[in-house]
Amino acid sequence: MITQVSSSLYHQLVTFFEERLTLKGYQEPQVSLRQEAFVRFKELGFPSVKTEDWKYTNLQSLINQHYLLNDAIPGKDVDINKAVIKGLEAYRLVLVNGRYRKDLSDVITEPGVFVSPIEEVTTNELFSAHFAKYADKTENPLVALNTALHEGGLYIHVGKKVVLKKSIHIVHVVSSSEAIFNQTRNLFIFDVNAEVEIIESFITNDKGISLNNTVSEVVLNENARLQHYYLQTADEGARYLNHTEVKQAKHSLYNNYNCSFPGSSFVRNNINVRLDDTSVESHLYGVTLTAKDQLIDNHTVVDHRMPFCESYEWYKNIAQDTSTAVFNGKIFVQPDAQKTNAFQQNNNMLIGDKATIFTKPQLEIFADDVKCSHGCTMGQFDDDALFYLKARGIGEASARILLVHAFAFDVTERFNNEYVRAYVDRLIEQGLVVEQ
Amino acid sequence: MLSIKDLRASVDDKEILKGLNLEVKAGEVHAIMGPNGSGKSTLASVLAGKEAYEVTGGEVTLDNKDLLELSPEDRAREGLFLAFQYPVEIPGVSNINFLKTAVNEIRAYKGLGPMEAKEFLKLVKEKQKLVEFDAKLANRSLNEGFSGGEKKRNEIFQLAMLEPKLAILDETDSGLDIDALRIVANGVNHLRSKDNAFIVITHYQRLLDYIVPDFVHVLYKGKIVKSGTKDLALELEEKGYDWLKESVDAEENAAI
Fold this sequence. Notes:
By secondary structure, chain A is of the alpha/beta class. In chain A, 21% of the residues lie in helices and 38% in strands.
C-alpha cells in the first residue's frame, strides 16, 4: 500500500526520474542499478511513523514540500571556517551540496590513496564490485532513493598496508538560498592492513532550507582499521537523513564516533555495522546534545554474523529546551556468531522540562555461547553535585558545563584524536543552554 | 568577621534553627557541639546557602556583607568555605580541573585574571604537601572511588587551595581513623592564621585535642545554650549532654 498522497516530494521525484536518467546519459550498470532502486523506492515510499523504525521521527514536514532537484549551484564561494578543528593535521576534502570541490580540497600525496568524485569512477572495477552491494540490502527506502538519484559524493580507496600519516577531513557543506534536495553517495574501501582516520564535518552556508539524503558504504578488508568521526554542526535549515553501512572482514576494526550538536533541526543517522567475518571488532560511540526544537535520531545496528567478534557501543544523549533525542540500538547475534562479546550502554540526561528522549536498546540473540549486556539510564542534573561545585565558588554556568562534560566524558575519553576531542568538548560548552 | 543574629531557618516547614546568635572574629576557632538533631549541620548548610533550607528570620554578615542575600557561589567567592560532611562524588570531573575552575572563578569575582598554569601547579604542589594529600588523588575524578578518609582530606586540600576567610568544618572527623584525623587536623592547624577563622562542628571532643578551639558552643534545639572555652568540651565528654538538656528543658517549661 502506498500512502504518499500528501508528499509533494514523492510526486516530484516520480515525475522527474525518467527525465533525469535520460538527461544524465548514465551507462550500464548504473542505468539498471538506478532503475531497480527506483522501483524499490516507489514500492516502499517514504517511511512513515507507522513503521517501528520511524515511530518518533516524522518525515512528513520534510517531504511535504517542493525542493530544487537540479544540480548544485556551482562555483559559489563557501566558508568552511566552522569545520576547522584547531591543531588537526589533515587532508581536507570539501563537498558543496555533495559535489566534490577540487579547488577547495587538498591533494593527498601519500602513495596508495585514491580519492575521486563518485561520478567519475562508475566504470571502475573495484567500485562496481562494492557499490550498492551493502546499504541496498537493508529495508531503508531512503537508501533505494539515494541509489536511484544520487548526485555527487566521494570514492576513497586506500591500498594494501597503507597507513595514512594524516587524517582525512571531509567537510560537507550545504549552501543554498533556496530549498534544495541533495543526495550524496560515498563509498570508502580499505584494503588489507590499511589504517586511516576519517573525520566528516557537516556545516551550512547560507539560509536556504535543505534536505540531505546521504548514503555511505564502508568496506574494511582483512585487518584494516578505520577511525571514523561524524561531527554534525549544521544550522537549523539543513535537515539530514544519513545512512552508513559498514562491512567488515576478519580482524578489521571500525570505530565510529558520532557527535551531534545544537543546530540542524532534523537529523536521522542510521549506522549499521555488519560483522561479517570472524574476529572483527567494532566500536560505536555517540554524543548528542540537542536544543530548541531539534530532533536527533540515532539508529544503530550491530549485526554479529560470525564467531569471535567483539562490539562495544556507548551513546550519550543530552536533551535541552523542547528538543527530542532518539536512540535505537539493535544488536543481533546470529546463530553462527558463537563466542561473541557485545556490549551496549546508553545514558540520557534530560535538561529541559519539555525535552524528550526516546531510547530503545534491542538485543536479539540467537547463539548460546555469547557474552552480551546492555544498560540504559535516564537522569537530570544532580542538585547535590551542582551545590557542591557552587559551594566552591563555581557559578551556575561553569558548574553545568563541568557536569555535562563529566556526563559525556565516558564517551569523549574514547576519542583517539585529541584535537577532535577538544573541539567536541568546546562544542558541548557552546551548545549548553544556561539559564541565569 | 562572621556575625549571626537571631537566625531562624526551617526545612519542609519545620523550624530547625530557632534564634541562633554567634560572633566569630578573625584568628578564632569556634567549636560547635551538640546532640543529634540539634541543628549543627543545618547551620552549616544555611550558611553555605543550600536551597532546601529556608531562612525565616535573623541576619548573617561576613565582614559586614549580608551573606543571606548572596548565591552559594558568591558566598564562596566572598571567602566562605564549607567542608562537607558527605563530599559529593563527581565522576568525569578531574579534581585539578575542578580546582582550577574554582580558583579562577573566585579570582574573576575579585577582578583578577586567571592564574597562570605554572603558578597554579606550583600552588597545587605546595598545598598538597601542606595537607599531606596524595598527588595521585589530585589527578583523579573528583572524589570518585575515594575512601571516606580520602574524601575528607580532599576537603581540606580544597580549603588550602581556596584560602577562605571563614571555613566551616561539618563533622570532618566523622568516619576518620586516628591517623587520618591527625592528618586532617594538622592540615587545619597549618592553615590557621590571624586573618582567617574556623567553625568546627563535631560530635566528639577528640578532634578538639588536635584542633584546639578558642571557644566551644553547645547547640541544642536550634539555639546556642552554652558557650565556654575548650574545657567545656572536656566537661561534655565526661558528663554527656543530658545535664544541659535538662536545664534547657526546665527553663522552657518554666517559661510556659
